[in-house]
Write a structure and sequence with these properties.
This protein is mainly α. It has a single domain (about 5-85), classed as Tetratricopeptide repeat domain (Serine Threonine Protein Phosphatase 5, Tetratricopeptide repeat, Alpha Horseshoe), CATH 1.25.40.10. It contains five helices and no strands. Helix 1 (about 5-15) packs antiparallel against helix 2 and helix 3 packs antiparallel against helix 4 (about 55-65). The longest helix is centred in the N-terminal third of the chain and has 14 residues, at about 20-35. The relative contact order is 0.13.
């Protein structure tokens, strides 16, 4: 399974089923092939946040936002992660 689009779709379906570890592995595969893939970064960041991996999630949201700085959900989720980290000044 080398097609990044297919991997991303498969990862998203696993994510929706709550199979976060499996989804994360596929998101990371996509990012190895396409390091700037916004959707893979955003969804991997979301999965990390759902597992309370807030530092990892923050870094991923910031990478995603470099590619799409005005994405409303990414901005909102980044803010939620900062709140969880009690980093209110950012």
């Amino acid at each position: 399974m080398k097609d990044p689009a297919f991997k991303l779709q498969s990862a998203f379906l696993l994510h929706q089923e709550g199979k976060l570890a499996q989804a994360e592995a596929l998101y990371k595969d996509v990012l190895r092939l396409q390091p700037a893939n916004f959707d893979a970064l955003f969804l991997l960041a979301t999965a990390a946040a759902q597992q309370q991996k807030f530092e990892e999630s923050l870094g991923l949201f910031e990478r995603a936002l470099k590619n799409n700085p005005r994405h409303p959900e990414a901005l909102n989720n980044r803010g939620n992660v900062l709140k969880e980290l009690k980093r209110f000044e950012e």
